[in-house]
Structures are given as C-alpha cells and as structure tokens.
Amino acid sequence: MNREPALRHPLLARLAEARRTTDELFDIVRPEHLYERPIAERHRIVFYIGHLEAFDRNLLDGRVFDLPSANPEFDQLFAFGIDPVDGGLPTDQPHEWPTLDEVRAYTKRIRDDIDARLDPVEITKQPVSTDEADPATLLEVAIEHRLMHAETLAYMLHQLPLDQKTGPALAHEPASDPAVRHDMVRVPAGTATLGLRRESGAFGWDNEFGELQVDVPAFEIDRYMVSNGDYLKFIDAGGYANRACWSDADWSWKESAGITHPAFWIRDVARGAWKLRTMFEEIALPADWPVYVSHAEANAYARWAGKALPSEAQWQRAAHGAPLAADGNFDFRRWDPSAVQAHPENRSAFGVEGQFGNGWEWTSTAFGPLPGFEPFPFYLGYSANFYDNKHFVLKGGSPRTAACMLRPSFRNWFQAHYQYVYAGFRCVRD
C-alpha cells in the first residue's frame, strides 16, 4: 500500500489539500459559536462540518468501494444543504443538533475509513458500477464539491460578528485610484462557446456539458467591474428609492426585506460615510474595489445607468483570449478583493480586464441546461433542481474560488435576491 505523499495519485493529494482548506476555515470560528446561523437562509455552521464528510461517504459508498456506515442517521442528517426561494426559512434550534464531539467523531471515522480504502484503489477512468461512475470522476466531484463549500462557507462566516471568529491582522492595500475611469470596450460580432463537448475527456459538472456555439452581435462592455465608488453614485442618486430602476419582483423583494444598501456595506452615521465589512474587520469603503451585490441590485444599477447586464454568451465572448494570470486574485490567496484595475495582465483579446477572479460576475441569463443535458446519475439534483428561472448564471470567480474552477466552461448560479455572494458585475450596451 503506497502512502508516500509524493508518490500518491494527484487526486488524493488534491483531496488532502481541499480538506486542509475547509478545516482551516472552520478553525476561524470560535468553538462556542459553531452553532450560529449567520445567514438566515442557510443551515447552522455545525451542519457543514458534518456535511462535507457525509457527502464524500454517500458519494463513494457502493461506487468505488463498500463503506459501512457508522451512523446512518447522521448520513441522512448531513446529506443535503438548503436553498429556500419562497421565503420559508429554517427554524431549527441549536439543541436539536448533535454535540460537536459527536459530529467530530463521525467525521473522523468517515475520513479514516475512506482513506484506508482509497490508497489501494486503482484510480481510473473506467466505470466500476452500474451508474457508470468511475473513481477519477467521483474524486473530482468530491474535491470540487468541497472547494465550492470552502467559498460558500466564507460567505457565511463573513456575516458572523467579528468577535465570534479569529483571524490575522490584515494590512489592506490603499485605494490606488478612487476615480477609476470606466470606459467601455467594443466587442465585435462573433461566436461564443458555452460548455464542453462530452467527448473532450475533460472534467466538468453536468451543466457544463453540451457545447453550444452562440452567434453574438457586436456590443460594448465595461472594461472593469463596477466599483464601490461607482455604486455609491447610484445610492446617492436615490437608486434604492427609484421604482423605475427595479423589476416588479426585485422591487417587491427590496421593499419587503427593507434592503437599502449592499449587504457588505455599513453606514457610519457619526461620520456620514460608508464602511465595508471584510472578513475580519470593518474598513473605510475602498472606492476602487468591486462592489458585491445581489443580481437584483446589479440589475437595478444597470437600468439606472441606461445599460444592461451581459448575457452569459456576451460575457463569454468578451472573455475571449483572456489568460488566467498567475498572480490573479483567486485560489484563496486573499480574503478581500483587489482594485478593479489591479490585474491588467488578465486582459481579453478585446481589452476587457479582470474577468477571472476578484469577484463572480452576474449575467442576465437564467440558469438552465445546455443542449442534451444529462444529470449526473450519482448526483441527480446538482443542477436540475435549480432550473427554475429564479437562479442566474455567474461567471469568472472570486478571491475564494479554487483555481480549478476558473475554467471558462464553469457555470456558477445563485438566486436573484441572495446578497451574500462574492459577486459583482459589469454592464453592456448594444
């Protein structure tokens, strides 16, 4: 049995690294606060400690090897997250969850059992079960699922009060150009390629397959993402009170929820200024960082500016030729955004900058299937459960997005009214 780290299969090394990433994230939270629910629409933090290991157990059991359950009740309890879209929020109380010792014992047992069986497994692209899953693909799913949670957990922990977590003392880069010159770049008519060919052999999630060629007419797009400074002009102009800027559904949401500003902004009433809540502190609002907002807020700004959000095909077309810069703001390198103009080396063939990393970017495209969509047989609801015209496609990536998911075909999605994603936007004009 080969347990030399340097000689193990690369997927096993990636799994170990992904585990370290999520373990370190949970360590940010002071133990007495692991039963908090920082975002009302999500489970309590303790759920995710159990979920990551339960997911791996439920995915691999019977497909790569037999994995007897040490606790079938926990396997079910920690199986699925939640994403309520109709106003129904979870009401469970902390005392209804297992103790932290019980959860830790459960997760340790799963890791130990999986690792003992993975080492001797031949990791191939050959199916080993009736649902035609192979060990390599299933390990890719386990790794990327965990890395996705490493990002979405950051959204959750970001909303946790500062005194409930620990973190490094951070020295933030000063705003280098508060008045970013926001010109638009012309993108000529051409073809955008969405998705992947099934026969490519590349790993992708089920919604990525079904390559689609889209003819895109010429358009203009912002060179940079919309910054905090840009968005402040919208707020100062009364954008949140201007009914004309909002769709009916978005206005209803904003009014009923009492939304008056981005979720990451804090009003410093005494000084008459805005501050930004970062993961570990509150700082003066950096004017040239990208603004992080919901799809509804991004769409309202675009309408106010006389523009629109790009379609998925327009965004993809604009990104043609963009390299993934080695020093870009992604792959857990920073907790915070960089200035929108900070990565000129990440420039597309048309001069659009910073499309990969630094913040996901909302599109106007409702999340849906590409041609010939087939759900993963071992994860039937991963995409299909969200083809509901209530979730919208995001492209690019954020500072907390793993590098492997910056591939051009990757399609992220969230509800239009969810404010907590590290997501911004840029606008287009025909």
From TrEMBL:
Domain DinB-like: 15-152
Cross-referenced Gene3D superfamilies: dinb family like domain (1.20.120.450), paralog of FGE (formylglycine-generating enzyme) (3.90.1580.10)
Domain Sulfatase-modifying factor enzyme-like span(s) in chain numbering: 182-323, 327-429
SUPFAM superfamilies the UniProt entry points to: C-type lectin-like, DinB/YfiT-like putative metalloenzymes
Pfam families in alphabetical order: DinB_2, FGE-sulfatase
Pathway where this protein functions: Amino-acid biosynthesis; ergothioneine biosynthesis
UniProt entry keywords in alphabetical sequence: Iron, Oxidoreductase
Stated name of the protein: Sulfatase-modifying factor enzyme domain-containing protein
Organism: Caballeronia glathei
